[in-house]
Amino acid sequence: MKFALKSLALSALVAVSGVALAQKGETVRIAFMDPLSGPFANVGQNQLKSWQFAAERLSGAKNPAGVKFEVVGFDNKGSPQESLNTLRAAIDQGFRYVTQGNGSGAGLAILDAVSKHNERNPGKELIYLNYAAVDPAMTNERCDYWHFRLDADTSMKIEALTSFMKDQPKIKSVYLINQNYSHGQQVARYFKEGINRKRPDVKIAGEDLHPLGQVKDFAPYVAKIKQSGADAIVTGNWGQDLTLLVKALNDAGLKIPMYTYYAQVTGTPTALAAGGESEVYVVAYGHANHTGEIGQMAADFKKKFNDDYYTFATYNGINLLGAAMAKAKSTSPWQVAKALENLSVKSFAGEVTMRTSDHQLQQPMFITKWQKAKKGEYSVENTGYTFVPVKQMDPYVSSTPTSCQMKRPG
Asked: Which residue in 128, 133, 196, 370 has the fewest CB atoms around it within 10 Å?
């Protein structure tokens, strides 16, 4: 009788655990939470399409787990509070994976909420895939076991950017203009620290932090930049806030080098092209002219949507999930989170690895420059211009230390 009861219990355990096994054809749903309305809607809409495109492209036989990925959009309006509302809605609808990127304020709200949910609901854990919220705190003092960042954080990008800028002798003074929230504040802070270490002769000619998504005319800011005598601009602005800054620079006829994070993002390339020739750089983990599979994906995305596929973190994110699920033999976030740690996959730019200590992806970085597209080069937003790589850096160049003290479940 005891043997029969033990056998029955074991059979039940196997049956329950079997539900979470990564079976060929199983569907893994991912809740996308970013602004799909408001001033940054054009960026959010592009990135939702990018996640959905990558998920469809890399489903089934295209990933080692054989699972199907499905991405569903939730409009968080870029707000931390709305992010909590969309997270609750996704949980109620049974999602176990969430992704977000536009805004570190929203990202930190999601990180904290996911952590609390998982602590209170064992067996119903969520994983938060962060594809673009780059506040270093998220993998340092605010790090969490259930959060995995696919983008390079601000400190990593600044490390790469200042390594490039230190070798540009014509740079003598820099004007910093950034959005007044955690990301913009961090860009200013880390740039000043980084350039002082590598080029202490470079002066900060001026600095502005402006309201996020509220400035309609950047002409007063451009006038201050011009008056400062700066010979270069550094900005972490994105979306409408960068597009309108470029328009104001064009209108003022101010042509000085600009070093950016997000000049390749929806809307800004068209504004750049309207101003003709200009010296603009981007620091990022990818660029517009990759070949191979990612290059073909970009071409197919353009053909399908007449839009640019530039959020390559979607490609790395889906590939990492597929590899982790195959390794774990499970789609359960509990098992997948463990499998993601120290996991390496081949990306469009070489091998990338999810660092165990803080869940920050380690990956190559690129400096790209805006210029007219030559034959065979990708025309960004159909402008006849493109971003070409002028420097590639191995992961160790931009890798920065972490203060994360990871608390692991169990």
From this structure: 196
